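Issue: ligand-bound run for zinc ion - logging full I/O for the record.

Environment: standard queue, default settings, no custom constraints.

Inputs:
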Amino acid sequence: MTKKQLQDCKKRLYEEKSKILERYLAKEETQQRLEEESKEPRDWEDIGQMTYTEELLDNLSHIEINTLKEIDIALKKLENGTYGVCENCGSEINIERLKAIPWTRYCATCAEEIERESGTYMPSYGFEPMLTEDIEIEREDLGEA
Ligand SMILES: [Zn+2]
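Outputs:
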């Protein structure tokens, strides 16, 4: 994967995260942030690195919480250089697949297999549903993030 492709995936991850977070953020604040972000790409990281409060988690659906968690895992992988590698077979995940689902953990072949075996796999999200209890909640004020 090229550096540019990695950057694109990173941006997509921050965008998706922002989209979910803006559902509960005060509208004005979100608007302001998004405006700033469109001018300065680096500001995506501010909203992308926000920590989750219990209040936030109460306001989101399980699917959204799962997505946030998967996005964070993907961002961690980007940091430590393991992004884009299938967790199941270890091969590189196709770039087109990463563009469609930037937080996917599996290559298309493995994702299909897992879906068939578990019956609960969600292809549109590219990951297995997890319980909200698995999420580590960091008790920090959003304003200080
Ligand atoms: Zn695989």
